[in-house]
Q: What sequence folds into this?
């Protein structure tokens, strides 16, 4: 008998039925920040996590990191519970608006973090890391003299320590200029090529479009769209018909229910159908249409 | 400079005047020393009134309270040791319950 | 647990760079130095005076230092969001609290021992005897500082520094009274007052000012007992702080 077993990969992140409410007005009113969200990040994937302000992106990330406790639902991160020792050892985190103790220097921070996590603390390793994120020459500068973008670079350097298996990035390019954003994207792709999974929460739709393989769109605490980028960008209901009639090429968009009728009428009028294909939309269009729907 | 102001205020309130002037400040009105206490030196105080000073470490009526304090009272030392054990046990119980609640 | 040591070092570095602490430390040293210049009131009273006022000053400075060091640590980390990257990857919540406490306790102890060395110097310069128990008093004041620090850190999980300071000061006052004395302050609820007084620490255990001033011999065994008492109480308070902190949402 030929037995073959295929090991299913353990998701880097698995979230199911996640709910979280915050108290408002001194505990009199409850506000549901997350309403049963569910998604998975498979090993080696780059998952874009999109949503307007207040959609629940940062709340989800904080639940994943064990900083917030969900009211309901289950989560695993790198196969373990959020905040667990193993998960913390194997992940790198870039917070939204990173802030560090003002009296420290980037080199001191990197050295202390490396020591806390049991990674290489040699000056060469720390300088290499600073160089990789474009902070060479800034290692001994006081944190209070660093710009927001530089602090963001430092937080990426801290996240890259020890070659993590999972990178959790919360709006990582918010304070960066276009050149720095490009460098940031390149580093993310390098890490992906190394085999790391990347969870990228971002407002920068172009960034998500460039680097992500899948995306989850959140609105008002619920997942409103998810899937591979191809699936999301391919219009579900809109189709493009290219036809030629009397030597003139014609291009039109038709909704799915009307598609067959329109093809028939073109054919009956003597036109030749050149192509019928789903209409691709930009991520911005998908995002805007998804987040304007009532979840 | 709030901490400094607080420091000065509290220091002014808490400093014991007792030891500045020997133990005279502790005496109750109408207090009289017995024969043994006559050995204490009698000196003129800064205001001209009489005051007396006990020799360091000497037990007398005025310093009796000192000898009931934990640093010299053997039963109280036992109490400090017992309290320490209870506190350690309580700390262990709190940790254990915390771990149990977390599963 | 390996992360605690570097994090405690990080805490020491962070605290050592705060001007407020140096202000309190240096003012206390200046206060002690000033004692050396105070005129004496009587032939035998001078060393007692210096010892009494000096140790009183250090007891209060230790309280102020503990509040200044401990009350801001957790709220500051939370408000400035420096806590998030720390708890996301390198540290568990227990390690965070332990590292912050150890670092703060080290700073507090260093200042306390510095003050005691200063007081011994003042006594020596004035030609008075330096009591042998002064070192033991220093060690016990360190233990008292740790205890107060642990209480401050427990309060700091809920209270902002301006609220933390009076709360801790209240605990300090209650802890410095005798049980009967405290119960007599609230005659209508004497039982409750006695229970409250039993729960808070006995700071008299750590305060060797009176025996030193009165020339009583304090044994190292007693100092060791006091040290164990201080550490035990601090551990209990830290265990409570850890249990509370572990359940807190860090928004």
A:
């Amino acid at each position: 008998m030929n037995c073959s077993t295929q090991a299913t990969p353990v998701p880097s992140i698995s979230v199911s039925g996640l709910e979280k409410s915050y108290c408002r007005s001194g505990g009199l009113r409850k506000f549901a920040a997350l309403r049963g969200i569910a998604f998975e990040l498979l090993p080696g994937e780059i998952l874009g996590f999109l949503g307007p302000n207040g959609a629940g992106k940062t709340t989800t990330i904080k639940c994943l990191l064990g900083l917030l406790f969900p009211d309901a639902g289950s989560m695993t991160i790198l196969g373990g519970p959020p905040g667990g020792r193993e998960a913390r050892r194997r992940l790198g985190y870039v917070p939204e608006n990173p802030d560090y103790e003002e009296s420290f220097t980037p080199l001191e921070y990197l050295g202390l973090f490396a020591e806390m996590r049991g990674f290489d603390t040699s000056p060469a390793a720390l300088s290499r890391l600073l160089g990789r994120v474009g902070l060479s020459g800034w290692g001994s500068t006081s944190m209070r003299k660093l710009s927001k973008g530089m602090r963001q670079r430092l937080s990426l350097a801290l996240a890259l320590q020890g070659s993590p298996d999972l990178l959790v990035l919360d709006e990582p390019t918010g304070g960066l200029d276009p050149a720095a954003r490009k460098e940031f994207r390149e580093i993310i792709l390098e890490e992906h090529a190394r085999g790391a999974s990347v969870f990228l929460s971002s407002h920068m739709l172009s960034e998500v479009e460039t680097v992500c393989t899948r995306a989850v769109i959140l609105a008002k605490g619920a997942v409103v769209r998810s899937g591979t980028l191809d699936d999301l960008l391919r219009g579900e209901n809109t189709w493009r018909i290219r036809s030629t009639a009397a030597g003139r090429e014609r291009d039109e968009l038709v909704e799915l229910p009307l598609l067959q009728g329109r093809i028939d009428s073109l054919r009956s009028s003597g036109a030749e159908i050149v192509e019928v294909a789903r209409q691709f939309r930009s991520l911005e269009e998908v995002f805007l249409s998804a987040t304007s729907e009532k979840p | 400079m709030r901490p400094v102001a607080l420091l000065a205020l509290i220091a002014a309130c808490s400093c014991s005047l007792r030891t500045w002037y020997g133990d005279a400040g502790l005496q109750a009105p109408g207090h009289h020393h017995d024969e043994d206490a006559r050995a204490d030196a009698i000196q003129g105080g800064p205001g001209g009134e009489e005051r007396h000073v006990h020799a360091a470490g000497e037990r007398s009526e005025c310093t009796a309270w000192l000898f009931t304090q934990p640093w010299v009272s053997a039963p109280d030392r036992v109490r400090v040791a017992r309290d320490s054990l209870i506190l350690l046990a309580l700390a262990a119980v709190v940790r254990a319950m915390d771990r149990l609640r977390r599963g | 647990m390996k992360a605690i040591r570097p994090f405690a070092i990080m805490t020491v570095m962070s605290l050592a760079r705060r001007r407020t602490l140096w202000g309190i430390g240096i003012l206390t040293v200046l206060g002690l130095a000033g004692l050396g210049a105070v005129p004496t009131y009587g032939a035998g009273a001078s060393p007692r005076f210096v010892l009494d006022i000096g140790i009183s000053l250090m007891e209060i400075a230790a309280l102020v230092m503990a509040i200044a060091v401990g009350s801001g640590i957790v709220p500051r980390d939370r408000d400035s969001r420096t806590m998030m990257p720390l708890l996301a990857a390198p540290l568990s919540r227990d390690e965070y609290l332990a590292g912050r406490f150890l670092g703060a306790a080290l700073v507090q102890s260093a200042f306390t021992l510095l003050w005691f060395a200063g007081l011994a110097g003042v006594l020596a310069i004035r030609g008075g005897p330096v009591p042998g128990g002064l070192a033991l008093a220093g060690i016990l004041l360190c233990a008292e500082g740790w205890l107060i620090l642990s209480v401050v850190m427990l309060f700091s999980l809920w209270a902002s520094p301006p609220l933390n300071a009076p709360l801790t000061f209240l605990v300090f006052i209650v802890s410095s009274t005798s049980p009967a004395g405290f119960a007599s302050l609230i005659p209508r609820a004497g039982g409750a007052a006695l229970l409250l007084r039993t729960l808070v620490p006995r700071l008299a255990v750590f305060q060797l000012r009176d025996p030193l001033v009165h020339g009583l011999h304090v044994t190292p065994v007693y100092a060791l007992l006091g040290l164990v008492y201080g550490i035990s109480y601090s551990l209990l308070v830290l265990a409570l702080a850890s249990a509370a902190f572990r359940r807190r949402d860090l928004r």
Observations:
- Residues 4-246 of chain C form one domain.
